[in-house]
Specification:
By secondary structure, the chain is mainly beta. The chain has three domains: about 1-35, no CATH class; about 35-215, no CATH class; about 240-375, Porin, CATH 2.40.160.20. The chain has helices spanning about 5-20, 70-90, 170-175, 210-220, and strands at about 35-40, 45-50, 55-65, 95-100, 110-120, 130-135, 140-145, 150, 160, 165, 225-230, 240-250, 255-265, 275-285, 295-300, 310-315, 320, 330-345, 345-360, 365-375. The strands form four sheets. The protein has an eight-stranded antiparallel beta barrel with strand order 12-13-14-15-16-18-19-20. Helix 2 packs across helix 3 (about 170-175). The protein is elongated, with a radius of gyration of 25 Å. The structure holds zinc ion.
Length: about 375
């Protein structure tokens, strides 16, 4: 967002004003840097998107707990290796490109730099991950919702998997972004199941599909611009910024045909527990049998990153239905809705249930069941 200011140029300018005789600005004012840096957070880290330099810097803080078997020098060496693995495997692998020529960084795309920051003090509720290094642990494990990574004390060197080797710490980092394993059975539904050299399978290669989260961060910062990783990926992996949904259904009470329109937008980039994307929007619901029309604000949680291509949306809101002809009284309805479906490229379809409670007690409790279609905007 544009109001998310220009921190770099602000800093440069205040530096000039406060230290006119300083070593850098003593002769001439600094060149005007019209640079907007968008700062934000996601579930596990923070980022800076510079829309002029066209770089996205993604940072994560890791708070290590080492076993007693490792001395201080070994701990430092281990943390340095972790940093090297994550920065090396994940940085600058693919450009992020906007869909429209009018968007920032259209010419050369956005470079992604990934930086791991190591700490040995307790995390104490701060953003970032607890990293438990275990003596003779062999498999890594990441619990993204509670932000914990478990590693073996030998993972500072690549794991030999026979046909391939893997920098396991870099693999676990992928899970901290919410990316799931590609070698497990149900991954056959998505991409990468046979891509053994992929970082989320058995190798070290970061594919364009693994950059979707970074593209989603930038898309949410630049209003009206949709960024995607350059190369082969799938729009089914996108966490869309804005969506338009239409549900057509029947009331279970009296089989009246209802059409519901819902427009919503992602609230920030920080998903709840790394899984549920909060969205705010507006909904209008029309009963075609009676002509009643109710409308109002909505709040939704999308669990569309849980198991691609499946998704679950749950939502509520407040829908006002004004007084109708024949002295039909107004009602103020709280909807509870749940949709389960599947996502493809740029759209999704599912089955929706909605229940409506009238807070004014003028309308009966209403159940609706329908078919939902959502389009990414
Ligand atoms: Zn894994």
């Amino acid at each position: 967002m544009k109001q998310a200011l220009d921190r770099k140029s602000e800093r440069a300018e205040s530096g000039y004003r406060q230290q006119p005789g300083g070593p850098f600005f003593s002769k001439a004012p600094p060149a005007v840097i019209q640079r907007a840096v968008h700062n934000g957070t996601d579930h596990g880290g923070n980022y800076q998107f510079d829309d002029t330099a066209c770089t996205l810097t993604y940072n994560q803080d890791w708070y290590y707990h080492f076993p007693a078997s490792m001395n201080a020098a070994q701990q430092t060496s281990y943390m340095n290796s972790a940093e090297t693995q994550v920065n090396g495997v994940w940085s600058r692998k693919h450009k992020l490109r906007p869909a429209s020529g009018a968007c920032s960084c259209n010419a050369n795309g956005v470079d992604v730099d990934v930086r791991l920051h190591n700490h040995t003090d307790p995390r104490n509720g701060r953003r970032g991950f607890d990293v438990n290094v275990e003596h003779s642990g062999t498999s890594g494990f990441t619990n993204q919702p509670v932000r914990t990574v478990t590693l073996g004390d030998t993972h500072d060197t690549p794991v030999n998997l026979g046909a391939t080797t893997q920098q396991r710490i870099a693999h676990e980092f992928g899970h901290t972004l919410g990316i799931t394993d590609e070698y497990v059975g149900w991954a056959a539904l998505g991409l990468g199941h046979s891509d053994t050299s992929s970082i989320m399978h058995s190798g070290d290669d970061v594919r364009p599909r693994h950059y979707q989260h970074f593209a989603d961060l930038v898309s949410n910062e630049v209003e009206g611009c949709r960024y995607r990783p350059e190369g082969f990926s799938s729009r089914a992996l996108v966490n869309p910024v804005a969506q338009l949904g239409i549900t057509s259904g029947l009331t279970l009470n009296n089989a009246q045909f209802v059409i519901d329109l819902r427009l919503n937008r992602r609230i920030g980039n920080t998903d709840i527990l790394g899984l549920a994307t909060p969205r705010a929007g507006f909904e209008g619901l029309m009963n075609t049998a009676t002509g009643n029309f109710m409308f109002g604000p909505t709040f939704d949680l999308s669990l569309n990153r849980l198991a691609h291509p499946l998704y679950v949306d749950v939502g509520t809101g407040m829908l006002f239905d004004p007084e109708g002809p024949g002295n039909r009284p107004a009602s103020l309805n709280i909807p509870f809705s749940a949709t389960v479906g599947a996502r493809w490229s740029g759209f999704s379809t599912g089955i929706n249930y909605t229940g409506l409670i009238d807070m004014l007690h003028n309308a009966p409790y209403t159940h609706l069941v329908g078919i939902n279609l959502q389009v990414d905007l």
